[in-house]
Amino acid sequence: MNHHAFVFAAQQFLGFELCHALLEKGWTVTAIDEHKETKDKWMEIGRNANLEYVSYGGWDKSVRRGSSVFLPYYDQVRGNRAGYLSEVDELLSKVDQPFHVIRIYSNGKGNRGLEEDGAAFYLPTLYGIHQPEEFLFAQILTGKGEGTDYVDDPSGAIYVKDAAKMIVNLSSKKDIFTLKPLSDRSWNEALSYITNETFSTGHRKIDAVGKEVIVRPSKSHRGIIDQQEKGIRLHEIEE
Fold first, then answer.
1. Predicted confidence (pLDDT) per residue in 25-69, tens digit
2. Number of helices and strands in the chain (H, E)
3. pLDDT value at residue 135
4. What is the percent of the chain with per-residue pLDDT over 70, rounded to a whole number?
5. For position 75, which CATH number holds?
6. pLDDT tens digits, residue range 104-116?
7. 54 exposure class (CB count in 10 Å sphere: 0-12, 13-18, 19+)
8. pTM of the model
9. Which DSSP category does 34 fall into?
10. Which of 121, 143, 172, 229 has the greatest CB tally within 10 Å of its CB?
């Protein structure tokens, strides 16, 4: 059976990886975001007959009956980035059709309750190639920012591709999940490959919501950080 997914914020950090993971699973994907043109990172996916990109302005506000809709609120990060997700959420709530909606939040955010129309996921820090500069890892690797203002959740660090694959694997369920890394010290462990400096996080401990799911790493911290750093260098050369 061919599954169809509508992925919003598709050109953002997690949204892009969700598209990639879905396509690898054989899904048909309608990717939607505010930009009219796809970014260079879409070359990582290449030509794929199962992928259609539509700008948010060009979207006809319809979703195929029986589709899964991915709303990665995680990608809002700060400011108005992907701010239209709540607008999409409200629109879908008024449509009398069976959609399966997957909402994805940062730990400590979101409504923290089970929606009848789908699943909810709560995530700690995600890192890897294309990580936004609002995160500490990206700030240190790019030399932008002083590491005093960042959005990381130090309770854990998960490779973004591993998180996306786990979300896709569990997306058909109606439940709440908190994704956790294998090690409780993963954030500090990953950070140690970037800097010897220690950071006072000042974050309160966030209780897990719903079912805890351990995401086992497919790559080492060193391998992920090296890939992220290489991606930054290539981007700087292209600019």
1. 999 999 999 988 888 888 888 888 899 999 999 999 999 888 999
2. 6, 10
3. 94
4. 92
5. 3.40.50.720
6. 999 988 777 677 7
7. middle
8. 0.93
9. S
10. 121
User: How many Cα atoms within 13 Å fall on the side-chain side of residue 3?
Assistant: 20
Q: How many Å apart are CA 227 and CA 25, to the nearest integer? A: 23
Give the span between the Cα atoms of 71 and 167, in whole angstroms: 12
* Structure-token pair, residue 64: 């195929």
Number of domain units in the chain? 1
**Contact criterion met (CB below 8 Å) for 2 and 67:** no
**b (16+ CB within 10 A) / e for 165-182:** bbbbebbeeeebbbbbbe
φ, ψ dihedrals at 27, nearest 5°: -75, 155
CA torsion angle 239 134 180 171 (round to 10): -70
Two tokens, residue 114: 């089970």
Per DSSP bridges, beta strands 176-181 and 125-127 are unpaired
For residues 212 and 178, the answer to whether their CB atoms sit within 8 Å is: yes
In a 3-state reduction of DSSP, which class is residue 115? coil
> What is the span of the domain harbouring residue 175?
4-238
